[in-house]
Amino acid sequence: MFSFVRPLRALVKGLQANDSPRQLAFGVALGMLIGLTPKGNLIAVALITTLFAIKVNRGSGLASAFVFSWVGVLLDPLSHYIGGLILTTAALEPTFAWLSELPVVPWTSFNNTVVMGSVVLGAFLFYPIYRASKMGFPILTPIVVAHLSKYKMYHILTGTDFATRWKLS
Amino acid sequence: MTGMIRWGYVAPRLGVVSVVCLIVWLSLGPLLYWAMVAAGQSVTKAKVEASQLEASIIHGQLQLHDLEVANPDAPDENLFVIGQADIRIDRNELLRRRLVVREGKLSGVRFNVPRANSGALEGHADDPTDESQESETTTNWLEKFSTITGQEQLEDNLETVRVSKEILDRWPRKYDDFSQRASELKQRIADVKELTKNPELKSLADVEKIKLAYDNIQQIRQQIQDLKVEVQQVRQQVPQDRDRLVTAKNNDVERIHELTKLENLNPADLSQYLLGDEYAAKVQSAIAWLDWGRNYLPSKRKGLKAKRMRGDNIIFPSARQFPDLLIEALAIDGSTELDGQTIQFRGVATGLTHQPDVYGKPAVFECRTDGAAQVFIRATVDRTGESPVDNIKVLCPRLSQPARTLGKADKLAVHVAPSDLQFQLDMNLHGKHVAGDLRIVQTSVALTPELNDKYGGATLTNGLQRSLDDVKNIDVAVDLSGTLKKPQWKLRSNLGKQMAQGFNQAFQGELALRREQLTQKLQGEVDSNLGKLNQLVENAEQAVLGKLTEGDTTIAQLTNVLKDQLALPLPTDQLKLPTKKITERLGSLPKIGDLFQKSAD
């Protein structure tokens, strides 16, 4: 029931524990890619698996995926346009035809305009988002933590509230 | 790179995934069974059941036992039953996100098999059955013939009968009335006579009585005369009634001729009556299968517009076009009923797919039967063009046909002895339009007609038999047209033509005979009734006039006696009795009773 709290808690703990900005930024960038990509295909599965399997901040990744999944819906027309442009490029057609005949590849739904467009758009935005996040986290983390620590919810999420109450700390 | 991987997280989850895969592998059969039943029921809207399903991912094989698919329109029977299905799936194509059955085999296929329990799904309402196309022209014709030849009904409505009854009813009443009035007059005469029996006139009162009697006698005489005139006048009405009766007879004869006019039975209508039901069932069965195919096999448009997610799926022209679901070849064997005979069949279906436009080739089903009954069937379902095109060709060079009855036994039926037939059907369905023809030739037939007594019975049956003796082959052609929802067919047959000729001869002969009989009977009726009328008038008139004449005689005698005895010079109509003179002469008068005595002598 409270599973939706876990990513938030991970993010807050990440901020509190001063995870490396690189890990936080990588999580945000990967989460952005996951959020933009339509689900139900092998690309989405691979991206989500990657998020959990590699050493990045899962909290920032899931929070980013949550936010960008809504942004992705709004960006569907753009993704569809980009995907259409790419998939109908004559020069790339033989490559795509070859890919479509390979085992497993068709499960990625790469021939879908929105999938292709969102993946390309996500890949295009990946590094800028990563860089921006990497630069932003060291500056913003202390401010955000100081601000959030005023709220009880922050302590509940970080577990300090329970630890104090049960004299665990 | 490996330093980046969170093995503490990945390893347990890999283990979980492995366990899930193992569970899926072990429970693949039940899972596939559930998926098959759910998909089948959503398509057919009726129960789909199987006794066992075995699946192997490694070998790409699927085996199904005792599959039963209920008929949504008849829940007590199965649309079809498959004893065993062996399906071999291409595993490489599965990796390419395609389900391709390279070859499969369906054994023990049977159609329209009764079910042990209802095959209706809960909450699924049956659609109302389509109206049947049935010709009633011949039935109406037979009913009309029956009405014409129905003697009692026809005779009850004859004008001659009504007029005769009225005349023969009226005349006796009239003469009864005359007779009664004559009897009353006679009684009054008798009363007067009784009054005059008094032997002596002893007082003036007796004289008054005599005077009163005399007056009465004169009145009675006048009434007798009036009644005689009335009887004479009534007699003059007899010729009028005779004319009425003759006119009624003539009208009836004309009406009988009008009523017994019956148009010749139309050969096409007779063909429809005799063969319509039987061949309508065959045509409807073929159309029902086409309709079933239309409902369950996707059209081109549906395949192209299918979307699995947001956006469009681009098909690359140079890539090998292959549908997501394809059954390349499916061998089928089983048994079915054809004209009451169970026949074994075997065939193969190719190119079955839900994306026929991608596959680019039509689905084809070819089948042939084994044994004495040889039937070849080829069905082509083409969804590759702009509009769907279906075709069914059936060829049966020889099929033993058991004895059967054409038509309706309670009206007109023709019994056909066992013989062989040839059957050929070519039916096309372009879009919604049906076109095609069905030809059936039954050779070396022996036909026996049967006609209900109401329509002529054995008398006409003999005539019909003679007309059918020349029929050695039954050649039936059915032209199909209309739409899938409202198919129409026109049936032609040499049987209808041949039989209609014989029927018309027999029926028209019977009608002419019936007409002649009725005319003769009417004439006899008129003659008889006129004779009765004349006899009645003659006898009744004589009886009445006899009574009146007798009364006249008695009155004349009474008048004379009274005149003589009273010596009254005045005419009888001016008779006045002087009381004084009568009183003086009373002593010399003889007794009045003696007068009557003498008169009687």
Overall description:
The complex is a heterodimer of chains A (169) and B (601). Chain A has 9 helices and no strands. Chain A has 169 residues and is mainly α. Chain B has 601 residues and is an alpha+beta fold. Chain B is 49% helix and 26% strand. Chain B contains 15 helices and 17 strands. Chain B is elongated, with a radius of gyration of 51 Å. Classes of the chains: A mainly alpha (169), B alpha+beta (601). At the A-B interface, helix 5, helix 6 and helix 7 of A face helix 1 of B.
At a glance:
Chain A has 169 residues and is an all-alpha fold. Chain A is built from 9 helices and no strands.
Summarize the topology.
The complex is a heterodimer of chains A (169) and B (601).
Chain A: H1 5-16, H2 21-36, H3 42-53, H4 58-74, H5 76-87, H6 93-101, H7 113-148, H8 152-158, H9 160-165
Chain B: H1 7-26, H2 28-44, E1 48-49, E2 52-56, E3 61-71, E4 74-89, H3 91-95, E5 99-114, H4 137-149, H5 151-156, H6 159-195, H7 204-235, H8 237-259, H9 267-296, H10 300-304, E6 325-338, E7 341-353, H11 356-359, E8 363-369, E9 374-382, E10 389-401, E11 404-407, E12 412-416, E13 419-430, E14 433-442, E15 447-451, H12 457-468, E16 474-482, E17 487-493, H13 494-566, H14 579-585, H15 592-600
Parallel strand pairs in B: 5-6
Antiparallel strand pairs in B: 1-3, 2-3, 3-4, 4-5, 6-7, 7-8, 8-9, 9-10, 10-13, 11-12, 12-15, 13-14, 14-16, 16-17
Class from secondary-structure proportions of chain A:
mainly alpha
What is the radius of gyration of chain A computed over CA atoms, rounded to a whole number of angstroms? 19 Å
The major beta sheet of chain B can be summarized as: 14 strands, mixed
Quote the average pLDDT of chain A. Answer: 82
Count the E strands of chain B: 17
Instruction: Please trace the helix and strand order of chain A, writing H or E for each element.
Output: HHHHHHHHH
Q: What spatial form of chain A do the alpha-carbon principal axes imply? A: elongated
Instruction: Name the poorly predicted regions of chain A.
Output: none
What count of helical segments of chain A does DSSP give? Answer: 9
Low-confidence stretches of chain B: 125-134, 301-308, 568-575, 589-601
Query: What general outline of chain B do the C-alpha atoms trace?
Result: elongated
Strand content of chain B: 25-35%
Question: Average pLDDT value of chain B?
Answer: 78
Query: Greatest interface and its residue counts?
Result: A-B, 34 and 25 residues
Into which percent range does the helicity of residues of chain B fall? 40-55%
- The share of residues in extended strands of chain A comes to under 5%
What is the count of DSSP helices of chain B, taking H or I runs of 4+ residues? 15
Write down the oligomeric state: heterodimer
Distance between the termini of chain B: 172 Å
Terminus-to-terminus distance of chain A: 27 Å
